[in-house]
From TrEMBL:
Taxonomic path: Bacteria, Pseudomonadati, Pseudomonadota, Alphaproteobacteria, Rhodobacterales
UniProt domain HNH: residue ranges: 7-50
The entry's keywords: Endonuclease, Hydrolase, Nuclease
This protein's record includes keyword Hydrolase: yes
Listed name of the protein: HNH endonuclease
Gene3D superfamilies reported in the protein's UniProt record: 1.10.30.50
Keyword Nuclease applies: yes
GO MF term list: endonuclease activity; nucleic acid binding; zinc ion binding
Length: 98
């Protein structure tokens, strides 16, 4: 049985039954349609989009290292890292404006 992929944001395994999705490092709306993607836990992906606008993602946060450096995301990563790999909960607040 292959090892579960690792979420590059929180560094936890992504079990096959966990909610997960692909994140475009450069948003599709900002020219990243055919650009690189990373597999993330759904909760991690939701937090990225609740924190940053598409323009901010394209301009300043288009790498995993840059995402990890954002203060709100760094606090989220520290919090979620203590949760089990399949953990999911609703992300508070609306998605950021495009």
């Amino acid at each position: 049985m292959p090892d579960d992929p690792i979420c590059p944001l929180c560094d936890r395994p992504i079990p096959s039954d966990a909610k997960q999705s692909l994140h475009h490092l450069v948003p599709r709306l900002k020219g990243g349609r055919n650009g690189p993607t990373v597999l993330l836990h759904q909760i991690c992906h939701n937090e990225i989009h609740a924190t940053l606008s598409e323009a901010e993602l394209a301009r300043d946060y288009n790498t995993i290292a840059a995402l990890k450096s954002h203060p709100r995301l760094a606090r989220f990563i520290a919090w979620v890292a203590k949760r089990p790999p399949g953990f999911h909960s609703k992300t508070p607040g609306p998605r950021r404006k495009r």
